[in-house]
Amino acid sequence: MAQQRDWVPQDVDISVPSMARTYDYILGGGHNFAVDRAVGVQIEQIMPGLRQAARVNRAFLGRAVRFMADQGIRQFLDIGSGIPTVSNVHEVAQSRDPECRIVYVDRDPIAVAHSELMLAGNDRAAIVHADMRDPESILASPEARRLLDFDEPVGLLMLLMLHWVDDESDLPGLLARYGDALAPGSHLAVTHASGDHQGREVTDATEVIRRSRSQDQMNLRTHAEIGALLKGFDLVEPGLVGCGEWRPEGPADISDSPDMNMLVYAAVGVKS
Amino acid sequence: MPNPGHSPDTPSPQPDAERRRRALARKWTYLLSGVVVVPLTAEELDRELGEQLDAVCDGIGAGQYDPKVLERVGDRLCALGYIGEPGLRCTLEVLGKGLLALPEFQPVESTAERIVLGLGALAVGFLASNQRAVIEQQESMQLSLFKAVRDAKSNLRESEARFDEVATSSSSGIMIISLDGQLVRANAAIGDILGYLPAELTGTTLFDLVHPDSADVLRDAMRQLLDGTETRIRQSQRLLRKNGETARISLTTSLLRGTDDEPSHLVIVVEDGTELMLLQGELKRQVLHDVLTGLPNRQYFGSNLEAALRRADPEHGVTLLHLDLDAFGMVCNSLGRQAGDRLLVHVAQCLKVVLSREKAMIARFDGDEFGVLLENSATTPDVATIVADINAELAEPTFVDGHGLAVSVSVGVVHRPSPDLDPTELLRAADLALRRAKTRRGQWELYHPDQDAHDREAQALAVSMPGAWEQGEVVAVYRPVARLADGATAGVEALLRWDHPDLGPLDHDRCAALAEQTGLILPLGEWLLRVSSGQAVWWKNVPLIVGLTAHQAADADLTNRVVRVLKETGLRPGQLTIGMSVQALRVPEAAENFGVLADMGVATMLDGFGGGAADLVLLDELPVRSVRLAPSPFATELAAMVHGSGATILVSGVDTEEQAASWHSAGADLASGDLFGTARLPGDLSF
Ligand SMILES: C[S@@+](CC[C@H](N)C(=O)[O-])C[C@H]1O[C@@H](n2cnc3c(N)ncnc32)[C@H](O)[C@@H]1O
């Protein structure tokens, strides 16, 4: 056959947790099912401050989008966008400039369905059901073609996303392909979980997820490994740092617990 | 934000009071923003909470206590974002202390009651609203779930509809065309007819393939289909072959509709009249063959396996290889799917070349997996040589899109399986061996742990085992397990015994090793589990121990087998102890099975625990209920180490009272051995 999808869409299977919904639970939302809450509770038992870390990541999302908007970026591609919760990229961006255009991407069918319902009627935002590991189907999707102009800089977001992609998938090659598709001046924002600081707890949590048979599985990387992934972009100050340490503006951006500020690393880079 | 509780005619507080209120609002913002997730910047939140604090103060202000105002503040607070319990707790703490200290509420004696009531009302308002929000969120998830299921189904229906079209109307080439004429899919037969590789057709339009003189007629036909005046149009058309020749070909065009019933694609079936006979043969081939490589597919392979097993020369037997390309995903990811397809074609070629002198059936399974069935002869090289030859051939780079690719395969091998083995079990055994080989790339792994693979006698014995089992020579026997504290029976361990007519009884370890070689262990092991579970229930639920071999432990079907047995026999999961050896548990699939069994409530046992670092890791990481110690000079230390973990400690080979006493003092809980009874038939035991 001449054309095929490179990836198998995830099943709609609510007997196993999805990390999109589990994350919503940890943030304090109700967009989840019992299976998701069950792993959420288990992970919280291992890392009692987890809600802090999730909040800090979500706050970084807001700062990163505002930072990009301040650099003149008006179009965003958010891959691994998850269940729309509070402070979604389009809300943050469009509150800066209603002209901002946003394309969300996720592979979780329920997250996608939810996003479609939520975005119905918003003609400047849309969601694509696709896998990050298949850049062509994202970049050439009707939604991306309609909303994004790849001759202009794009704000590409991959927050709490890359650690779901295993090393077999050639992550550096994938990021390079995204980089190639973007105009100079485009920005990339990334957050990525790591076991550098809470090794034991993070490993245990990873194990809980593994045993839950979720279709999302964690791939922990070190600071150096994550840094190496981003080498195609010039990182803006302060570089790759604990999420809470990336240009915090107030108590909403950090946690009292240093461990929870460092649980995920964050960076913003620019394509030169 | 306009706040209905904040009526404009409320007198403004005094400047000092005003300042103190602002300070309190800032504190509220500061503390709240550290525990909630809201879509507001710090300034926006500060402004919002300032207004809410004004409303609170007005609501409990002198002489005009109004719970409704406070309830609305609670409602508003909830609507800010994800506030939840942490946000409410923070709010009540900050306002509880803060309001009592505001100058406008002095003296406190006269306002405390209203403040307390007011905060209560705020909490009530918050609670009601929060409940509503959670229900709404849950409902929106239900809706999303339905939508996702429906979307998934409709994708499926769409592709099924396409497939039906293919299956029912085809005797040859098929193209799926988008409504604007772009070629979406084409099968290999189209390429054959027109002289293209399937990949070369990507990106062409239908009209690139049609002779210019025919294009108009075809366009008309498409229009009629779209108008709905016709549902299927058959025409004789001239198409262009790659070499420039014209082919007179009959085209049948029909319309495909999506779930919304809107036209979505056109299907064109191409018949090369001159080659109709050939094509019919081709179609048949396609059903049983993989279109890409032309090799038999898994169905074909599976259905021919049985015959090949029966037909095989009994002296040399057959060898089943299950191959998987290493790093195929990486090739597809970096060079694209089509490069991956070419690579698969190349691998198929290599396999044919390497095996050209053998009687071999080569098949493409799914994705990047291949199967080979070798009917061995006196001159067939050994497995190691064959795998090495395949990898040597593949190590020669092949050029795909200008990239020189050299790949390797991992191979699972079942060598000379018993001819009675069910083909599906055989394929599963090869698959298991492959999974083990996969952990080290370019490797192969024999489904056959025994080193003396060429020991004919052992081979013969292994091969005759299925027959013996059928004859009832292989039986289940039971060895009592006693509590060391008082010698009372604590359960039984189910074991295999082969009452061999010439060799006498062969014990469990020997039986398991023989069955492990040929794959027989999978059905035989399930049988042992089933009869012993039934027996244990009969014995009024006596606790049962069943140990597994490495391949049973890693079997993808293990948990299903256990569930099935428990269901059929009625044995409670907690009464069943399943043992896996520490070696077997190094394979991730086995560890996963272990975890799942534990989750099901089955008592899991770490068998052959020797106290090495890796064993300790297993003890630490897996849900271990009991541990059976391997014989060791450091028994006491081992027992102490395990004791701390809370797992029950079992020992075997306890033949004398002295041994029992020394184990007991070392901390062991349960024991088996001659002292407590040898393994016997169920009739010789009672409970
Ligand atoms: C924890 S959520 C992150 C949500 C949001 N980006 C944030 O940081 O707040 C991670 C999301 O990534 C999605 N995801 C994981 N692997 C993916 C892949 N390979 N392609 C697309 N989405 C993926 C999951 O479905 C999930 O919705």
UniProtKB/TrEMBL annotation, chain A:
**What's in the keyword line of the UniProt record?**
Methyltransferase, Transferase
Q: What Pfam family is a match for this entry?
A: Methyltransf_19
Determine if NADP is one of this entry's keywords.
no
Q: Name one GO molecular function term.
A: methyltransferase activity
Biological process (GO) annotations held by this record are: methylation
Name of the protein in question = SAM-dependent methyltransferase
Organism taxonomic ancestry:
Bacteria, Bacillati, Actinomycetota, Actinomycetes, Pseudonocardiales
Automatic annotation (TrEMBL), chain B:
Cited InterPro entries? Biofilm_reg_signaling (IPR052155), EAL_dom (IPR001633), EAL_sf (IPR035919), GGDEF_dom (IPR000160), Nucleotide_cyclase (IPR029787), PAS (IPR000014), PAS-assoc_C (IPR000700), PAS-like_dom_sf (IPR035965)
GO MF term list: diguanylate cyclase activity
Per the UniProt entry, the Enzyme Commission number(s) are 2.7.7.65
Keyword field: Nucleotidyltransferase, Transferase
Main enzyme class:
transferase
* UniProt keyword Nucleotidyltransferase, yes or no: yes
The segment(s) forming the EAL domain are: 458-687
Q: Which residues form the GGDEF domain?
A: 316-449
Q: Which residues form the PAS domain?
A: 159-229
Which segments constitute the PAC domain?
A: 233-285
Q: Does the keyword Nucleotidyltransferase apply?
A: yes
* NCBIfam families xref list: GGDEF (TIGR00254), sensory_box (TIGR00229)
Q: What is this protein called?
A: Diguanylate cyclase
The organism encoding this protein is Umezawaea endophytica
* Lineage, highest ranks first: Bacteria, Bacillati, Actinomycetota, Actinomycetes, Pseudonocardiales
